[in-house]
Design brief:
Four copies of one chain form a homotetramer.
Chain A: E1 4-10, H1 26-41, H2 46-51, E2 54-65, E3 74-84, E4 88-97, E5 100-113, H3 124-134
Antiparallel strand pairs in A: 1-3, 2-5, 3-4, 4-5
């Protein structure tokens, strides 16, 4: 299984603004959809994880918006795990359309307890899947 | 206390789409902000209500979009309760900008239990406040 | 070609609210995605239409929210054109998950000029496609 | 005139997700509202700027989410310009609630031409206002 995960996102009117391009914060929604689908492909369903009080939250991001995306474009979100720690991981995510790169982001995602929102270790099975993908 | 409640909403880039006007579904956000502030003015805080397992959900709406709203406009949401039942109420809401009416909606809001999402009677104090306003 | 068009929508965290269910106005985004894909399947691309100053706007809606949708559910939006006029059409749209119906809406969509936002006749080719589907 | 600008933001249901807290990308909307109001206070209206083909776009951001914000909280966005160049500026923005800091961001905003989306010099009057504030 490859370490790189691709997820398609279509741009709808809801994603654009009066500047005629995708509203800058909407890309973060696209990145989150891709991370969710990456987890789903690995066998993990966030609604089940949430029932077990395991929630992933975004801790920090470095983002570069490089080219504007526009209505009707079919984008690809490319997600790669670059670092795994006990209670968090770092992912490199880019959004492309054909050969054009629209944006790139480095995203730190932390595992927290659903009620307390305090950091906690990621489930072993998730760490195992990530580590196995990496090999 | 008057039965009619007014709440201002500024239009930001986030609210607009590539058509150059406010995205149609965003008006429903504006309506909900106004209903929340109407409840707050009446002394009810939805986060506290939620802790007591009292949640208001929208059951149905009839909406007419009449004139497009645009970036930077300062809108007013006008909210009037038109009917109160045990477990639900109906509100007439309009959005205006100066003398121009942008949209109108009739909104049925129901009270449900936070966990089960089943209908339940509205708290007496809320019914009392609405009834008192009406007089 | 059938008159009924189905489009899948996955529920992500972005669609939910602190009540633990899909935020009521998000369903309108799902409906709009389905209308866009229905047009795309019929051969019409809204970004091209927009360049030709043809924009579709929502004029009115009657909506019933019937059952809450939740995180990770895979919904289906079912769209049927029920009426076609010169400058507008009416669509019946429902959202289901398996055998459960989540919401139903009647949506009037009008064709307007991109700059003036004034009503104008729908392009003949679009009317033709809709009429042909209907038979 | 002070270099630091404060803008209040109330958290509504629309801003929260099923984790019970504000959806991470919604903070970027709050930051953008504050930048818009900062410009407005300085005498610049983005809808007028757009008519003159002057658009501000976000180029990059470094963001740290520090504490979750929750339903009904009244947040304050604090915005400070930290660097001004010919065609872009850098702002430090934090979001607080009382004494608690919820997030911090460094935001590079660039001035682009409305049609071409190519970088262009910021209007002199805007640079002047920022420079005057700074003294």
């Amino acid at each position: 299984m490859s370490n790189q995960f691709q997820w398609p996102v279509r741009v709808y009117y809801e994603d654009t603004d009066a500047g005629g391009i995708v509203y800058h914060a909407r890309y973060l929604y696209f990145l989150e959809r891709a991370r969710t689908e990456w987890l789903r492909e690995a066998g993990f369903n966030q609604s089940l994880l949430k029932q077990q009080n395991t929630i992933f939250v975004v801790r920090d991001m470095q983002i570069k918006w490089q080219q504007p995306a526009t209505l009707d474009e079919l984008l690809t979100v490319i997600t790669t795990v670059t670092q795994v720690k006990k209670a968090s991981m770092v992912m490199a995510q880019t959004i492309t359309c054909g050969h054009e790169q629209k944006m790139q982001a480095s995203v730190t995602v932390a595992c927290v307890h659903g009620d307390t929102k305090k950091p906690m270790a990621m489930p072993d099975e998730i760490i195992k899947v990530i580590t196995d993908r990496d090999e």
